[in-house]
Structures are given as structure tokens and as C-alpha cells.
Amino acid sequence: MKTLKVLSALLCYPHPEMQAALGEMAEALEEERLLPERERQALRTLMRQMAQTDVMELQERYIRLFDRGRVLSLHLFEHLHGESRDRGQAMVDLLEVYRQHGFELNARELPDYLPLFLEYLAQRPQEEAVELLADAMHIIALLGARLAERDSDYHVVFEALSTLVGEPVDIADIRRQVADEGPDQTVVNMDQIWEEEAVTFLGNQEGCGMNRPMPGAPQPMQWVPPSGSWQQPAVQSG
């Protein structure tokens, strides 16, 4: 699915090669026509803006938006597990799914990074890709609502993803929650968070792999928390 490949590229950290390929990406959307005209037009507008903006400015905007806090993190399991060990196991399971389908990571990104997940889906059959994307739609809708609340141009990418599979049935509740959210506490408490020890998911392969299914067995991809709530990640007080 070229469309998912394009949406993946638009959510990646901006670089000159991506900027140079924006015209080709727009052509791919028109060629495949998986998205309605309204969403394709919105994406074309975003791509024109990106093409006309200095790449360093694009990079600075990207970092301010996605890398300085948790509420807009593009790492999907961040919104389910924070930095807990549960997130590590979930990422090991997802990494195994990638490997079973010949999708090897050659970058330093974690497997739950949304652009990486979309790139994987772009290589799978359309029916399977749409089904897996639907499983993650609660998180994607949450991120899209937060971006729209901040008047970010990136929200059109998330609207396009929602168009492919449909919005969650509780999208109105998600939007109400987002409208009532205060400042990102992970930005307010950034100094404290940086002092905490990072949780890694590959640091203990033996422990993480003990409960994994045997190769060839279905792999769990749990995107929705049992509570169904979508709170900002908690920040522990000292």
C-alpha cells in the first residue's frame, strides 16, 4: 500500500531526501486513490508547506512537537505502558511479528514507532494491513485529536489514517478528554524524568523471550488498555 508508505514518510523526522521526494509521494497518493479527495487535498497542502519550508525549521518543529514530551510521542506503547516492563514485553512481541514476516529493523528506532509500524503495514496485504491498523486506531485517534487541538498541520496525516479504517466508536469521548487536558506533565517535569533510569526492551532478552509464543504462532499485539481510558502518562512525584 503506497498510501501507508507515504503517511509513514510524512511522520518521520524531516530530512532533505524526504523533502525532495514530496512530489513523488503526492503522485503515489493520486495513483493509488485509497483516500477520499478531501484527505488527499489536505495531504497535498501539508506536502506543499513542507516543500516550501527550510528543512532545519521542519526538524525543529518536529522535535518540539513529538520529542519533547509523552502526550504526542509517536511510540505507540508509550501511551499504554509508559516506561514499564510491560512496554518492553509488548515491543519484543511486536519485533517478533516483524521478523516473522521478513521485516528486519536496520535503524535505531523502537518497533512501536508509528512511522515504522506504518512502513511494515505498507508491505503487508491490504486486508491484513487495515485490520492491524484498526487495532491501533484508539491510540492514533488520540494523537490526531491532540494534534488538532494544538492546530498542528500534522493532524491531517492522522485523519487520513482514520479514513482508511474508520474512527473508534468512542471518538467523541476521546476528543472531549483531549479538550480538557492540561499541560503535558512530562514537559513540566522534564528535569525529573531525565534523571530516571531508562527502561530498555532488549536489555534482557532471556527474560523477555521466555513467555513468547513459538515461531509461527500468532503474536499478541495489544493496543487498547483494559480500562479503555486515555490518560496522560503518569509522572511519579519524588
Give me the secondary-structure category: mainly alpha
Q: Which strand-content bin applies to the residues?
A: under 5%
**Overall mean pLDDT score?**
76
What's the helical proportion of residues? Answer: 55-70%
Distance between the termini: 47 Å
Helix and strand string, N-terminal first? HHHHHHHHHHHHHHH
Q: What profile does the largest beta sheet have?
A: none
Backbone CA Rg: 18 Å
Low-confidence stretches: 186-238
Shape: globular
Number of β-strand runs: 0
Number of domains: 2
Q: Helix tally?
A: 15
Tell me what you see in this structure:
By secondary structure, the chain is mainly alpha-helical. The protein contains 15 helices and no strands. α1 packs antiparallel against α8, α3 runs antiparallel to α4 and α10 crosses α12. The N and C termini lie far apart (about 45 Å).
Throw out a few tags for this protein.
disordered C terminus; mainly alpha; single chain; 2 domains; 0% strand; globular; 15 helices; 238 residues
